[in-house]
Amino acid sequence: MATVEVAVCLPALVLLLLVGLGALAVVRDQIACVAAAREVALATARGASPPPVQADVVEVSADGDVVRVVVRRHRDLGPLPGFDITATAVAAIEPNQ
Questions:
Q1: pTM for this structure?
Q2: Lower Cβ count inside 10 Å, N or C end of the chain?
Q3: What is the band of 1 on the pLDDT scale with cuts at 50, 70, 90?
Q4: What DSSP character marks residue 7?
Q5: Model confidence pLDDT, tens digit, residues 25-59
Q6: What is the distance between the alpha carbons of residues 23 and 62, in angstroms, rounded to a whole number?
Q7: Which residue in 22, 21, 9, 55 sits closest to 36, CA to CA?
Q8: Mean pLDDT on 11-15
Q9: What element of type H or E holds 88?
Q10: Sheet with 57-63, edge to edge strand ranges
């Protein structure tokens, strides 16, 4: 009897494991996008060249005395439709010294 119950539960456990691993990958990508947006915003605000970023879209805009950076990365989920991960950072432009 126990063998049948394990055989029935095993696909559900595998699916749960895959969903959990996918969620961890999404969180990792979100943290990477936030860090990349922060680094680009700080470099742009200082007047330095921004570091290379692994993202699909990086938008940099200056509005008055602040710099706004939006980093977007598309995440595929295999056969399921994917989605975009977005992070925004704002930094004050440093005055010239």
A1: 0.81
A2: C
A3: low
A4: H
A5: 889 999 999 999 999 999 999 989 989 988 899 99
A6: 34
A7: 55
A8: 90
A9: strand 80-92
A10: 57-63, 66-77, 80-92
Residues in the chain: 97
- Give the single-character DSSP code of 93: P
b/e 38-76 (16+ beta carbons within 10 angstroms → b): bbbbbbbbeeeebeebebeebeeeeeeeebbbbbbbeee
- Higher pLDDT: 84 or 96? It is 84
Tokens of 8: 């029935």
Q: Which of 59, 50, 42, 28 is nearest to 93 (CA)?
A: 42
C-alpha–C-alpha distance, residues 70 and 57, integer Å: 8
Separation between Cα atoms, residue 54 and residue 62, nearest integer Å: 22
